[in-house]
Write a structure and sequence with these properties.
14% of the residues lie in helices and 61% in strands. By secondary structure, the chain is mainly beta. It has a single domain, classed as Porin, CATH 2.40.160.
Length: 154
């Protein structure tokens, strides 16, 4: 019994030395602010948190969560972010959106969910969203909506 305890302790020490703290220190969180313009929210302020590390030639990559509040509604998104040189990057997101006030191309109190792809270069980004009605739409309206947005930052 005593030798098993020493063997287990030796394995833990070996694993601890193989996984140094420096390897975990490469992971970091980044706060990412931004402004978005386009339907259906019109104009919104966004804040994101990305958690990632350097991966090969990519300066930063990892999961991202975003929240955006605008004149015509709010959006919550989660996905994957890859940053590149020259303040560039790609975001692949799953998003849910709720309208209020006077949204563009929709009525207030409608909810949509779907996917987005955003490409950023020099802090200017272009996003394409494919969103499907979830709530607040007439029963016969199941059309998927496609939106193009531009932004500064994320």
């Amino acid at each position: 019994m005593g030798s098993r305890v020493w063997q287990s302790a030796a394995v833990i020490v070996m694993l601890g030395s193989a996984c140094t703290e420096r390897a975990f220190a490469q992971w970091r969180a980044e706060m990412l602010p931004g402004l978005r313009f386009g339907p259906p929210i019109k104009t919104g302020a966004a804040l994101g948190v990305a958690y990632g590390k350097r991966m090969g030639r990519v300066p930063f990559a990892g999961p991202i969560a975003l929240a955006e509040v605008g004149l015509g509604g709010a959006r919550g998104s989660a996905g994957y972010f890859m940053a590149g040189p020259f303040a560039s990057g790609i975001e692949v997101l799953g998003s849910a959106l709720r309208t209020w006030g006077e949204p563009s191309q929709l009525e207030p109190n409608q909810t949509l969910a779907g996917g987005e792809l955003r490409v950023t270069f020099f802090l200017v980004n272009v996003g394409v969203a494919m969103l499907h009605p979830v709530a607040g739409f007439p029963d016969d309206d199941h059309r998927t909506r496609y939106y193009l947005n531009i932004g500064l930052g994320i």
